[in-house]
Structure formats: structure tokens, C-alpha cells
């Protein structure tokens, strides 16, 4: 029923979000991958027109075949088609906040995203975050705290059960861990929960199995061992 277009698993943070929105919520999709910066990706996306970016989701079997692209639209569409899957918290205040956090992640944090591109092959020591990156991190700390205050819980995730907002922040967690960025102890625990999550581990294993490395994502900094579990 679902076919999901993604790009290089080690580097495409939006692809990771799209894939988590499917797999982490117990749904299945046939995955088709295109290589970033090659015609392979645009050729793949011709089958997902009018989408021009990944993730893109083709939906068949419940009426006319259709395509939904952009991670936020994919989240809302899957939540609508699978209300039992739990993409958003059941409680309305938490649900509104979770949507706001996902939307802000989707639209913002440009400094963090630009300075610290997701690279699931590397972890560094000595990265010096700019004031703009530190401002993004401060905002992320606030958002994660607001989430926990709205939905007090003992689990690792923002609103109790893993929800789409967590999926949107998974690549942020990877950036915090791999660029050794400063966060509170509570949020360091949240970051590690992402790195140890079964679906994240599966995604990263597939990323490492991809023989093609994109050196443009590498920084000239000393490397650390991967900061989370390996399997
Ligand atoms: N806002 C989009 C961003 C998607 C995006 O920028 N994807 C990148 C890969 S991470 C892409 O497809 N780049 C290929 C291109 O722009 O040609 C979303 O949420 O899905």
C-alpha cells in the first residue's frame, strides 16, 4: 500500500523522519532510495510527481493512487489514515504542543541544521558551536522542557508514548550526540533514547551498509567512537 522514497540513509535527515513516521508507528512501506546530488534521485522522484524532495510517500489501494510529500504532510496523512497508530498524543493540549514542536522543527533551526549536518557515520570531538547554533540549542531545550511539563511521564519520550514530534527530533538528537553539543542532563538522556531506539538502530545499520560515502558531510575534526549503541 505504501512506497516511500528516501535518499542516503547516513545523511538525509528528512528521509529518516519520513521513514520513522511509517516504521516507528508499526506501518510498513516498500522503500526506494535515490542517491543525493545525482540524477538517480530526480529519476526516482519522477515516479512521485509532483514531489521533488524526499521523503515522498506513494499511497495505493484505497482509491486512486496518490502521492504525499514533505515530512509534515506525511505525518498528518498517516495520522489520518491510521488514527490508532499514535502519531499524535491523544490529549488535546499535548497534541497541539506536539504538532507545534514538529512544525517548528520542520521550519526552523537553520543554524543548527547548516552547521551540523546529519552524518550517521561520524562523531566528533572539538566542534565549536557558534552563538547561532547555541541559540537554536537553547530553544530546543525550552521546547523539550515544555513538552515534558505538558505530559509528565517516566518514559524517555517527549509526550509519554513515542509520537511524531519525537520522530521530527530524531535527527536533532543525532546531531547533538555526534557534534558533542551541550545539552542538559535530562536532554542528554532523551538524545541517548533516540540513539538506542530499535528503529533508529535499524536505520543506522542500513546507513552503514551503504558503500557510498559523501565526503562533503565530513568535518576536519578528531573523531570519537559512535556515542550510542551499535546494534
Ligand atoms: N521540507 C521537506 C524537506 C525535504 C528535503 O529537503 N529533502 C532533501 C533531502 S534531505 C531532498 O530531497 N533534496 C533533494 C533536492 O532538493 O533535490 C520535508 O519536510 O520533507
TrEMBL record:
PROSITE patterns xrefs: GST_NTER
The EC number(s) this enzyme carries: 2.5.1.18
Keywords from the UniProt entry: Transferase
Protein name as catalogued: Glutathione S-transferase
Classification via SUPFAM superfamilies: GST C-terminal domain-like, Thioredoxin-like
CDD domains the record matches: GST_C_3
Class in the EC hierarchy, top level: transferase
GO molecular function: glutathione transferase activity
Organism: Amaricoccus macauensis
Residues annotated as domain GST N-terminal: 1-86
Amino acid at each position: 500500500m505504501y512506497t516511500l522514497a528516501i535518499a542516503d540513509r547516513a545523511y538525509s535527515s528528512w528521509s529518516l523522519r519520513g521513514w520513522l513516521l511509517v516504521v516507528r508507528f508499526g506501518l510498513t512501506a516498500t522503500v526506494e532510495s535515490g542517491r543525493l546530488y545525482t540524477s538517480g534521485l530526480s529519476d526516482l522522484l519522477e515516479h512521485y510527481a509532483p514531489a521533488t524532495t524526499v521523503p515522498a510517500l506513494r499511497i495505493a489501494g484505497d482509491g486512486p493512487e496518490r502521492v504525499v510529500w514533505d515530512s509534515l504532510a506525511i505525518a498528518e496523512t498517516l495520522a489520518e489514515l491510521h488514527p490508532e497508530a499514535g502519531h499524535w498524543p491523544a490529549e488535546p493540549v499535548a497534541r497541539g504542543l506536539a504538532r507545534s514542536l514538529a512544525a517548528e522543527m520542520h521550519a526552523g533551526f537553520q543554524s543548527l541544521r547548516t552547521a551540523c549536518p546529519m552524518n550517521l557515520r561520524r562523531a566528533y570531538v572539538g566542534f565549536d558551536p557558534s552563538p547561532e547554533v547555541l541559540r537554536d540549542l537553547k530553544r530546543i531545550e525550552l521546547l523539550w522542557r515544555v513538552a515534558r511539563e505538558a505530559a509528565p511521564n517516566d518514559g524517555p519520550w517527549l509526550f509519554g508514548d513515542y509520537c511524531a514530534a519525537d520522530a521530527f527530533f530524531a535527527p536533532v538528537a543525532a546531531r547533538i550526540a555526534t557534534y558533542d553539543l551541550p545539552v542538559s542532563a535530562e536532554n542528554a538522556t532523551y538524545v541517548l533514547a533516540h540513539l538506542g531506539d530499535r528503529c533508529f538502530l535499524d536505520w543506522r545499520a542500513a546507513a552503514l551498509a551503504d558503500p557510498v560515502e559523501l565526503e562533503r558531510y565530513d568535518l576536519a575534526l578528531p573523531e570519537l567512537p559512535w556515542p550510542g549503541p551499535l546494534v
